[in-house]
């Protein structure tokens, strides 16, 4: 039985815990929130007797858990993951795992000293069967001529921003913005399917505080380009596509892969969609569970390293995109 501690009490944490309960082999034991009442109220939603904490040091020192799931504001991911590793806990951290490559390097160095620990970035769609199906189809293409990937969803927090407030997801202090929140899905797509680009440029629409509300990124590869279209200040219903020599891989949404089609030169459609789970976190939780339950397996350790290598590459591309657009976070200055 894997004992789980969680940092954060939002909807995404609940979805993750629901997934662990559906998969099985997990027990929620510890919940951290800045407000103890909130932590305890959240814990009561689930079976068992999870303990609430409001002090992070106490959470890590006294909490009875093996694995911590971190779903706090982006800027806190690094420090909390570092503290978890030093406390000898396995880590599952929501994307983006870190704000910049400097933070990522620190975590990698710590992990090299703790060979028995596992560290996962919770990029849920990266583990889905439809994601793998698309990767396999791309490999079959004799020539790739590019891709257009879209994920644009209006944020309820944008109304607060327009009212003069500064929610975490729209704050450079908390490493927010469209690229970090939604663009990361598309960067994962591009890096996993095509590799690391030779050049990455971002053209954002900046809000009053300099953060990006939406934008377009161009990733340049030898012989083709990949266009990423994402945002939190508008809704888009455009599909996403990968282009071959006449054939096209079509997907309803590059971050929420509910339907995938292979369209030939004549326009004939072949539905290649794999089964989709009701809870989108089920597949990643299954993968994390299998690895953690056989943590002594060299094959599982290598699997984690493979996933981590992609996370490091995604982190680098995300940083390069931000730098091209002169978008800086508070955390960037802490390593200068």
TrEMBL record:
InterPro entries: Gfo/Idh/MocA-like_OxRdtase_N, NAD(P)-bd_dom_sf. It comes from the Bacteria. Residues 3-118 form the Gfo/Idh/MocA-like oxidoreductase N-terminal domain. It holds the Pfam family GFO_IDH_MocA. One of its GO terms (molecular function) is nucleotide binding. Transmembrane segments: none annotated. SUPFAM superfamilies: Glyceraldehyde-3-phosphate dehydrogenase-like, C-terminal domain (SSF55347), NAD(P)-binding Rossmann-fold domains (SSF51735). This is Oxidoreductase. It comes from Liquorilactobacillus oeni DSM 19972.
């Amino acid at each position: 039985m894997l004992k789980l501690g969680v940092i954060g009490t939002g909807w995404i944490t609940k979805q993750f815990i629901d997934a662990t309960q559906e998969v099985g082999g997990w027990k929620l034991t510890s919940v951290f929130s800045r407000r103890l009442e909130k932590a305890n109220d959240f814990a009561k939603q689930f079976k068992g007797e999870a303990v609430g904490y409001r002090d992070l040091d106490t959470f890590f020192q006294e909490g009875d858990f093996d694995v911590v799931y971190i779903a706090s504001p982006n800027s806190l991911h690094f420090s909390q993951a570092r503290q978890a590793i030093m406390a000898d806990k396995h880590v599952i951290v929501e994307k983006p795992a870190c704000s910049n490559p400097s933070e990522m390097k620190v975590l990698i160095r710590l992990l090299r000293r703790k060979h028995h620990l596992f560290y996962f970035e919770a990029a849920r769609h990266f583990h889905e069967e439809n994601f793998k199906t698309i990767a396999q189809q791309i490999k079959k293409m004799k020539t790739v001529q590019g891709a257009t990937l879209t994920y644009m969803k209006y944020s309820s927090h944008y109304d607060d921003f327009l009212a003069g407030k500064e929610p975490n997801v729209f704050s450079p202090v908390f490493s927010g913005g469209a690229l970090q929140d939604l663009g990361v899905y598309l960067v994962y797509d591009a890096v996993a399917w095509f590799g690391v680009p030779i050049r990455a440029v971002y053209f954002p629409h900046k809000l009053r505080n300099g953060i990006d509300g939406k934008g377009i990124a161009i990733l340049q590869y030898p012989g083709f380009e990949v266009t990423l279209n994402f945002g939190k200040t508008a809704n888009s219903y455009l599909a996403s596509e990968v282009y071959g020599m006449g054939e096209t891989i079509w997907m309803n949404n590059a971050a929420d892969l509910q339907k995938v089609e292979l369209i030939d030169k004549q326009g004939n459609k072949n539905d290649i969609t794999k089964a989709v789970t009701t809870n989108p976190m089920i597949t990643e939780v299954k993968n994390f569970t299998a690895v953690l339950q056989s943590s002594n397996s060299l094959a599982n350790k290598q699997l984690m390293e493979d996933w981590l290598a992609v996370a490091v590459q995604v982190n680098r591309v995300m940083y390069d995109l931000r730098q091209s657009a002169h978008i800086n976070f508070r955390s960037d200055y802490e390593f200068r």
